[in-house]
Amino acid sequence: MESNSLLSGSFESGLSLNALFTIIKQRFERTHIRESAHYESGQYIRTDFGHEGYITFEKINSKEYLIRADAELPGDLLQLATILDKVLKENQVNLIFEVYDRFNNLYASDKIKRE
Question: What SS3 state is found at 56?
Answer without folding.
Answer: strand
